[in-house]
Amino acid sequence: MLNDVVVIGGGPAGMMAAGRAGELGAKVALLEKNSSLGRKLLITGKGRSNITRAEFNPKELLKKYGREGDFLLHALSTFGPKETVDFFEKRGLKMKVERGKRIFPETDSSKDVLDILMCYLKDNNVEIKTNSEVKEIISSHGKISKIILSSGKEISAKNYIIATGGKVFPGTGSTGAGYDWAEKLGHTVAKLRPALVPVKIKEDWPQKLQGLSLKNVELTVFQNGKKKDSRFGELLFTHFGLSGPIVLDLSFIVGELLERGEVKLVLDLKPAMDQQSLDKRIQSDFIKYNNKFFKNSLDDLLPQKFIPIIIELSGIDPFKKVNVITKKERRGLAKIFKNLKMTVSSLLGFESAIVTSGGVLLREIDSKTMRSKLIENLFFAGEIINLHGPTGGYNLQICWSSGYLAGQSASKRK
After folding, report:
1. What's the chain's average pLDDT?
2. Are 348 and 198 in contact (CB under 8 A)?
3. How is 71-130 classified by DSSP, letter by letter?
4. Which tens digits make up the pLDDT trace of 326-357?
5. Are 334 and 279 in contact (CB under 8 A)?
6. In terms of CB atoms within 10 Å, which end of the chain has fewer, N or C?
7. pTM assigned to the model
């Protein structure tokens, strides 16, 4: 019997698409080249799975997806964060809201999220075919006729959904093959880049701070002396440079700018204070530690690990008594606090990224159905499309929303 829908890719988008199509009565086959489904899902949110975020107004949520975020309006209106939470909670997995509106399962387990999806597939009679790597997709006259697996087996359906993810975490099976198939079918694929990825820094002082996490700081991106973007929040120093939420969120624009030339980052350790207010605060601390050496006067302003770096950058003798530090030196110190400059060397690669930037152009996909505008029985879902959001549940929400809509639309197309 001919399948109604064949879904390629057993990640979050593919499982949601297959389950929804089956729920609506379609005969569905889900193809996954690995021996099990959801390998990448299991490592999301550091194994805890930040499934979405507590932003229940679609238009507000769309603002976080950048210039082309409006593409998701129909998908989010159909199956947004509220529907996502309801989906899992109605099936017995309670959710909790954490700092920054991030939503996690109460069990802090990605495996529990996967188990719910597996039950969803089983309950809706989806035929799961693991160890089923797609070798080729055959089409003619604007329509897919069949899929050929690496084993030589052929599979046909009325409709097909490609939900193969991107190129990040290739060890989980995300090799980018879906982009190749899309191009062979006539689609245009925007340049692929690692996104939400740590940044390598040329200077060596950030490496001396490896493991130090800073909260409530501001990081700004500059090129040719012009501000390009900035983020406020948490940053982490690593053995190669920088990571943490604000760095990951800025990495996309950093990657784009690097192709045009040198990129500078400026770290403001005290964004809540302007330079004048900070100078007064430093004066207050110097009065408090009046007879101490300079190196022992910054404990109230900085983490202990950071103090030697700031002293070195300031050029002030660490053994100078604070009561003889000049106004010029003190103001220079305040300037350093608010203008720690770094030069970007490069981004880490796809193996270290959270999502892939680039993918099938949105103008070639119908946003109301996720159906290809070039191949009449083809639909897309998840990371393969040219859209991604910042960290914090935004990208899994794309998977849930686009997968649900693609599965629903494919099941209805006769």
Report:
1. 95
2. yes
3. GGHHHHHHS-HHHHHHHHHHTT--EEEEGGGEEEETT--HHHHHHHHHHHHHHTT-EEE-
4. 999 999 999 999 999 999 999 998 888 889 99
5. yes
6. N
7. 0.89
- Helix ranges (DSSP H) in 155-274: 177-184, 245-258
In tens, the pLDDT along 47-63 reads: 999 999 999 988 889 99
- Token pair in block for residue 31: 């193809």
| DSSP H or E segment with residue 287 | helix 275-288
Split at pLDDT 50, 70, 90, the class of 1 is low
Strands 355-360 and 189-195: antiparallel
Residue whose token pair is 């494919």: 410
> CATH assignment of 3-193+356-412, given 3.40.50.450, 3.40.50.2300, 3.40.630.30, 3.50.50.60?
3.50.50.60
**pLDDT for the residue numbered 351:** 84
7 touches 26 (CB < 8 A): no
